Amino acid sequence: MTAVMVTTTITTTAVVTVFITTIIIPPPITSFQIFPCYKPIEKYKVEESEWAPQNKEHTSPKLWQIHVYLPGITAKDKEKVKADILELTTLVVHGEAKYHSHCSSWNEVVHSCSCTLVVPMPFKISFKIPPKSKVEKASAIFESEVLVIRIPRE
User: Fold this and answer.
1) pTM score, two decimals?
2) Distance (Å, rounded) from C-alpha 10 to C-alpha 119?
3) CATH class belonging to 32-152
4) Each residue of 18-37: pLDDT tens digit?
5) Which of 18, 25, 79, 126 is 20 to 30 A off residue 34, Cα-Cα?
């Protein structure tokens, strides 16, 4: 969007000077990363993947929350995981996590691995953000192998 501002100056000799100033107003930010840090996104491309880690979605009238279980990912590895909000309507969690061939139930607090295969793999999960969500107040934390994303609702 471009706005034009016209300034007119009249001098004592009756000469009219017109200055035209073009002000470029940037479009509002509609896509941004919320984890591991906040930053606007201009162009977006994430490769599709066939695998995604376990996740749970919780919705209430006041809060929408996503839990993504990332066994074997430590605090130092969390930079390999990203959470993005696209066009204010979609949450995409993507990156690299450890695929476990026979993970035990997610209800356990700590992952005790007896898997036959553990391999780093790319992943991508998309969620439709519910109506009346306040995406500008989205937050994300990584704790005990779980990425928790919270978005307040009206």
Assistant:
1) 0.71
2) 74
3) mainly beta
4) 777 778 777 777 888 889 88
5) 25
